[in-house]
Amino acid sequence: MEKIKLMPGYEGRDCPGNGTVSGIECQCDECDFLMCCIPEYSPNGCEGCNIDYCPRKEKEQS
After folding, report:
1. Which of 12, 20, 17 lies closest to 1 in space, CA to CA?
2. Angle made by CA atoms 50, 52, 33, in degrees to the nearest 5
3. Which of the four pLDDT bands, split at 50, 70 and 90, describes residue 28?
4. pLDDT at residue 2, rounded to an integer
5. Cβ-based neighbours of 12, under 8 Å, separated by 6 or more
6. What is the overall mean pLDDT for the chain?
7. Residue 34 has pLDDT above 80, yes or no
8. H or E, element range at 30
9. Are 56 and 21 in contact, with CB atoms under 8 Å apart?
C-alpha cells in the first residue's frame, strides 16, 4: 500500500487521510500534527504557525 502524505491544518479539509477520500481510511491518529486540524487548538488555521517541519509548509515552499 502506498503511503499517503498527510496534510494538516484547515480542519483537515485538504488532507487525503482525513477519512473522506474514497478507499482511504482516516489516518488522523497517525498524524503528528493532529492538533492543527482541531479548531479549538488551532483557531487561526495555519496563520501564525512557526513549525518549520510541517508538511503543509514543505509543500508551499517547493
Report:
1. 17
2. 80
3. very high
4. 65
5. 18, 28, 37
6. 85
7. yes
8. none
9. no
> In this prediction, what percent of the chain has a pLDDT beyond 70?
95
* Cα-based distances in Å from 23 to 2, 18, 19, 50: 12, 11, 9, 33
How many angstroms separate the CA atoms of 42 and 20, rounded? 21
CB 14 within 8 A of CB 6: no
What's the pTM?
0.74
Q: Which three cell numbers stand for residue 59?
A: 509543500
C-alpha cell at 7: 496534510
Cell of 38: 482541531
